[in-house]
Amino acid sequence: MRDRSKMMVAALISGFLLLAACGSSAPAPTPTQSGPKVSTDAQKFASLKGDPVNGKTKYETTCIACHGPDLKGMPNLGKNLTTSTFLKGLPDAEAVLFLTKGRPSSDPLNTTKVDMPPRGGNPALKDQDLADIIAYVRTMQK
């Protein structure tokens, strides 16, 4: 009788261990979950891979007006993108989301009190173009 009880306990323990080894019913982590937290809104941009060479070209046609040719910002217009702690703290997908929305001058977090228009004021910029711009800016950050 004792042997049978021991076998049943061993079988139950083995079963629990087997179930534990199989993992939970939670989905496997996606690439967006492996790095810094990406919001649900930004997840649609997580698969975009930016091209810094194309990003430089796009930057020079739109962003340069406020952020300058050296990305250090124009007086009373755009922020210095080379040292921006805000931008450095954003995962790429969140940065693209930010560019799609912009930031109005009325936003309390807007320290320049100048509108940052959605897509830099250039509605022709596609999501991929914005990802490319972020990739370029990342190469210029200190």
Describe the structure.
There is one protein chain. Mean pLDDT is about 80; it is low at about 5-35. The protein has about 140 residues and is mainly α. The chain contains 7 helices and no strands. It folds into 2 domains: about 1-30; about 45-140, Cytochrome Bc1 Complex, Chain D, domain 2, CATH 1.10.760.
In short:
This protein has seven helices and no strands. The protein has 142 residues and is mainly alpha-helical.
Features:
2 domains; 142 residues; mainly alpha; Cytochrome Bc1 Complex, Chain D, domain 2; 7 helices
Number of strands: 0
Shape: globular
As a whole number of angstroms, the C-alpha radius of gyration is 24 Å
Helix count, per DSSP?
Answer: 7
Structural class: mainly alpha
Low-pLDDT residue intervals, each spanning 5 or more residues:
7-34
Q: Give the CATH architecture of the largest domain.
A: Orthogonal Bundle
Q: Major β-sheet, in short? A: none
CATH superfamily of the largest domain: Cytochrome c-like domain
CATH class of the largest domain: Mainly Alpha
List the helices and strands and how they pair.
Blueprint: H1 2-22, H2 31-34, H3 52-61, H4 64-67, H5 85-88, H6 92-101, H7 127-140
